[in-house]
Amino acid sequence: MSSFAPTGNASARTAEPIQNNGFWPTIQPAKFRDARRIDGTVTPPRVQDALLTAMATVNRVLRHWQTSQIDAGYQQVQDVPTPDWHPPGIYLALYRRAVYATAHAAIAEAYRDYDATASARDRGDLQEYAGESYRRDAAWAISEILDRPHVTVELI
Fold it and tell me: Does residue 121 carry a pLDDT above 80?
């Protein structure tokens, strides 16, 4: 499977941190770029937009979990106690993974035709699935936070 890792201008301008809703952490675009190997080919405004919309999506999906944690007296995600089987700080890590993967999916799909060489056209079918792979990673991270299985199966 292909992942989008552009090799253009590696000296991208740093985008400002994106404030969150108080419960979830501020997202640092530079850390996103580093974690997901997104260099300066993707402009700071596009990274900001992808991260902001990813945060909105993940926050919406986790809104009921967030509300129940606040109702239990935990004002920020790092205050929420983790189950015995999870390492400390896992909720923060899973949240970032969900946001980063969602943003990366949007960027990968927007830049799918970025490389118009023959080799890129030949592996186009692999690139087509990169966004879905990132969305799956996001869904699994969210499932871990919600303590749900990664797959739901229904018999028809």
Answer: no
